Structure formats: C-alpha cells, structure tokens
C-alpha cells in the first residue's frame, strides 16, 4: 500500500525480522527501484561493488574514508589526489575472499578498524566491510538479511505490459522477492507475467495472488509461484470472502505442494495473527497495523478532534484509482 511501505518502513521491518514490500504506486519504475536500493544500502554486510580506481576488480592500492577527507577544504576537493590522503596498501588490514561475515566482524573489533577490504589471491578488491554494520547487527540481532548481509526487501508489481521494464529495474536494484498485485490472481495477465519472470530471472522469488480457492492456487503454483498471497477483500477497509475459510482451504492445498501461504487482509491485532497461522498460513501481511506510524509514508495532518493523523487507503479505493489515473491515463484495472 502506498500509505504503508516505502524505504523507511521496509528498513524498520527488516531490522525487526520481517520484510517490507515497496508499493508500486510511483510516478516511474525508477522511483520504486530507488526505494529498493535505499533498503539494500542501509546495511551493506559485504559491500560487493567497492571502487577505488574506477575499475571493479582492480588491484587494491589504498583506502580513503570520510575521516581522511574531513579536514580538506572544499576548494581543494577537485585538486586533491586520492594518493595524498589514502591509507596505502601496506598499512591496511585485509581479509581473504573466503572469510565469513562473523569472522570479518571479529577482525574489525580486534584491530579497531572502521573498514575491512576483502581481497582475492591476486590482491584484487572484491568486497568491503564496514564497522557501522557491525553495530547494526549487534543492535538488531533478529534482522532479516540476504547472503551478502544486506536487509531483505520486496517490491510489488502490477500486471500491465510495462511491468517487465519495472521488473528489470527492481532486479538490478537487488530486490529479494517480487509480489504480483492483482485483485484476482487467477488471471491470464498474472499467469503470463509470472511465467516470464521465472523464465528470465529463475533465482528471483515471486509471490503470486491474491487467491481464495484451491483451483486458483493450483493455477499459480503450476505457473511457477514460489508463494501465494491469500485473501480477497478481507482487509480492514475492504469487503470480500471470509478470510478464515479461505486461508484454511488454500493453505491445506498449498502445503501439500510445498508452497507457503501469506494471509493478506483482516489482521487487526496479534490475536488475528495467531488464529491465521493456526488455520495454516505461514505468515501474514500487515497494512492497518503499520499505517500512520512514523515510518509510514505521507504527511501528518490534524483531524477534527485534534489528533495528529496520517492518511490510510486501500489500493482498490477510489482515491488510489484517481491517483493512478493521473499517472497512467489509459489505465485498465485487472
């Protein structure tokens, strides 16, 4: 939802063990990809694209950090050479490319360094580890990370033809999972897009949906879905099929196929989460419980009773449709 999750919410969710799904209601696909990049850059783990000479994979010559340039006057920025301020190679503590992340953090702690370059057998720079990320790991031990030690983040996409370009930008930005958003997941538009994604990006996980029946679930699982989103019109600001029976029936079938089910909608408090998981869901998607928080997008306004509020709307609301029509005039909803 565009009133729930952008990069601030996604970062907070991942730090506490969840994953945020960046909404698709942006003016351009590049804006959405930029939100994904902000989440992935928050905690780098192994920084896999460090550059010094401008050539990735080049020999490690030295290291320049913010502390090395703090006292350089701005007027000298363009004339000062990196070699004049950098810590040269012979004074650097480095790690081998086989080094595990916990061991790398131990070296940083022992040597009291802020950065640890990772080099291969040819002394070529392949990664960089920062001490600030060690502090984040200590403060948030339950955070959700990928294999590079970066926070997990997902992104929502629609079923329009231009979504293929959006997918390319999101994958390039490092998205961990894509969610195909549709009021009815069992459509030809979603099936075709799902098959295209799994063919072009087989390593990218895709959550398909929404579905409320075993027949719909079978169609998407057969098309390559890695997980299903369950629920139609069951949210706190929506009307549709009863979520309890939908979760039970879909989860029972999906579990027999080894596919997890995400209950989407109607989660009003922690009690609903417990009941939903008891009915067979693997996890839940939350909207209302997170809307209006400091991390949610949007500006505050004052309500009629003097309370400070933030707008919360469903993606099928008239307000949202009008916003989408302003961005995409010839838009059709599927």
TrEMBL record:
One Pfam family for this entry, by name? Answer: IMPDH
Gene Ontology molecular function, alphabetical = IMP dehydrogenase activity; metal ion binding
- For whether the record's keyword set contains Secreted, the answer is no
Q: Name one GO biological process term.
A: GTP biosynthetic process
What GO cellular component is one of the record's annotations? cytoplasm
Protein keywords = CBS domain, GMP biosynthesis, Metal-binding, Oxidoreductase, Purine biosynthesis
According to the record, the signal peptide region is none
Record's superkingdom?
A: Eukaryota
Q: What positions does the domain CBS occupy?
A: 86-144
For whether the record's keyword set contains Repressor, the answer is: no
Q: Looking at its record, which EC class is this enzyme?
A: oxidoreductase
> Which pathway is recorded for this entry?
Purine metabolism; XMP biosynthesis via de novo pathway; XMP from IMP: step 1/1
Q: What is its EC number?
A: 1.1.1.205
Instruction: Give the catalytic activity.
Output: IMP + NAD(+) + H2O = XMP + NADH + H(+)
Homology family: Belongs to the IMPDH/GMPR family.
Output the PANTHER family linked to this UniProt entry.
INOSINE-5'-MONOPHOSPHATE DEHYDROGENASE, INOSINE-5-MONOPHOSPHATE DEHYDROGENASE RELATED
What's this chain's function?
Catalyzes the conversion of inosine 5'-phosphate (IMP) to xanthosine 5'-phosphate (XMP), the first committed and rate-limiting step in the de novo synthesis of guanine nucleotides, and therefore plays an important role in the regulation of cell growth. Could also have a single-stranded nucleic acid-binding activity and could play a role in RNA and/or DNA metabolism. It may also have a role in the development of malignancy and the growth progression of some tumors.
Supply the name of the protein. IMP dehydrogenase
- UniProt organism field: Panagrolaimus davidi
